[in-house]
Specification:
- The protein is an alpha+beta fold and about 150 residues long.
- Strand 4 and strand 5 form a beta hairpin.
- It starts with a helix and ends in a 5-residue tail after the last helix.
């Protein structure tokens, strides 16, 4: 009877460890992979989440983070914003981009979504030559640029 109880505990423990391992691996696979592209003259840092890059023909969707060197006040969260995380859609064929969504990141790392655009409502604009937008566009589009 004791042996059966111990064997049951070992089996339950093995199943529990397997479940924890699977959850951990699943989380790691979906984790962000931020690549810093540049730091501007004001020391703001721009990064692309490589794990978020999705390609559909000439269009690429990616999350882009701007970390401010100095926090900025924003009424949307009634406090200081330390970073902005944008989901951008890039059109590699026309060298343009559109804002799909924006989240503000506060000091406590809470994200507050302030903009969300439906796919059919996206407004594309050309990236200005030499701008950070062009740099990000070239990074996500690579050789697909015109």
């Amino acid at each position: 009877m004791v042996a059966g109880f111990v064997e049951g505990l070992v089996t339950c423990r093995s199943i529990m460890y397997a479940a924890v391992l699977l959850c951990t691996l699943g989380s790691a696979a979906s984790a962000s992979d931020w690549t810093v592209l540049d730091v501007d003259a004001e020391r703001n840092r721009y990064s692309v989440d490589q794990a978020s890059v999705r390609r559909e023909g000439q269009r690429v969707t990616a999350r882009v983070r701007t970390e401010y060197a100095r926090p900025r006040e924003d009424a949307a969260i009634a406090g200081a914003v330390y970073a902005v995380v944008d989901t951008l859609v890039f059109d590699c064929g026309t060298a343009s981009f559109a804002l799909a969504s924006r989240s503000l990141v506060a000091a406590d790392l809470a994200e507050t979504q302030t903009i969300a655009n439906a796919r059919e409502d996206l407004r594309f604009r050309r990236a200005a030559a030499g701008s950070m937008s062009e740099r990000i566009l070239r990074h996500v589009c690579g050789a697909r640029m015109p």
